[in-house]
Amino acid sequence: MASPSPPVRPWADLQHDLLVVIMSRVGVPELLFGGASRACSAWQASARDPLVWRRVDLRDWAALTSARRRLAAGDGAAAAAGRGRIPLQAALCSVLEIVVRRAAGRMEILLLPEFADEEHLLFLAQRNPNLHYFSLQATCVTYDQFCKAIDKLQFLKGMAVDESLINHDVLSHVHQCCPDFLELKVFALYVDEEIASIICNSLPRLKKLEIPNSDMSCAAIMKFLDCLEELEYLDISGYETSAISSAVLQKASRLNIFIWNSKFELGEFTDCSNCGEHCINPQEPCKCVMEHRVMDWLAGPSQPS
To answer: What is the DSSP letter of 23?
Structure first.
């Protein structure tokens, strides 16, 4: 005789704290315009809990827009209102308004979409001054407005910004206004010793520095390792030219984490067995390998034995 099936309990009976943990793993599009916004009252309440909004990732704006359109499609009035295109800047402000209201001052991390600018950051800083970390990839930023936002973010611990903001005045202002600032990520194409010096002199207490996918000189890397005495985490992964020497590795041995993997070989460079030359880019092999390939081509296809 088959044993009776255990009773099925409804999802709504889950404890609120557990539902909050679940909702904190759901993306912002679903929280605002997806299933979470239209579920049972228990799920709606947990989705609106400020603890869910401690980390907000708005970088996937396309997904957010798509979810908003799906919601509007099911609501005739909303669909009619949504037929007119809303400018991106205004749309982001409206989303930030909702997010800030939901977070109730508890938002700690905000990752903004690529088109966001310093006005959005100032908008946020005025309403959520307890922010600990933000990501702003804008390449053309008004320094005055950016610094106004920083003035209000006295609890800021880190930020991810474009290389256009890496200058002495801006970073020194961050250092003066944010005593707990310890983490910096830079979106840059190239970093030389001069840029490294600006970072080191302006933010001497950095513990975590990330500059991925950037062409970086060996002198810049050495500058970071020599001058940032409290540095614990350095990520310079994804570069296309080798700047890692034995001296760099020796100095970096004091770090807790050092990520320097090449874009092509993940940290291990291929040496030609004949000439010993580094083959950093498989698409641009050393002269010896090129000659070998030419000879193979001249010889024609190999004959089966």
So the answer is: H
Q: Are the beta carbons of 162 and 187 closer than 8 angstroms?
A: yes
| pLDDT value for 41 | 75
Q: What is the C-alpha separation between 52 and 173, in angstroms, rounded?
A: 31
Mean residue pLDDT of the chain comes to: 80
Phi, psi of 165 (to 5 degrees): -95, 0
Residue 301's pLDDT band (boundaries 50, 70, 90)?
A: low
Question: Closest Cα partner for 55 from 116, 134, 121, 119?
Answer: 134
Q: 240 near 215, Cβ under 8 Å?
A: yes
Token pair for 291: 């000659």
Q: How many residues does the chain have?
A: 305
- CATH superfamily for 16-72+86-272 is Ribonuclease Inhibitor (3.80.10.10)
Q: Supply the pLDDT for residue 132.
A: 97
What are the start-end ranges of the H helices in the chain?
16-23, 28-33, 41-47, 61-73, 76-82, 88-103, 118-127, 143-152, 168-177, 193-202, 218-227, 246-252, 287-299
Q: What sign does the CA torsion over 52, 55, 58, 62 have? A: negative
Which residues partner with 270 through β-bridges?
Answer: 279
Residue linked to tokens 């509007």: 72
pLDDT tens sequence across 186-233: 999 999 999 999 999 999 999 999 999 888 888 999 999 999 999 999
User: CA 208 to CA 76: how far, in whole Å?
Assistant: 49
Non-local (6+) Cβ contacts of 260 within 8 A are 234, 236, 237, 239, 244, 252, 267
How far, rounded to the nearest angstrom, does the alpha carbon of residue 11 sit from its chain's CA centroid?
33
Share of the chain above pLDDT 90, in %: 47
Q: Tell me the domain boundaries of the chain.
A: 16-72+86-272, 273-298
This prediction has a pTM of: 0.76
Nearest to 12 by CA among 43, 46, 44: 43
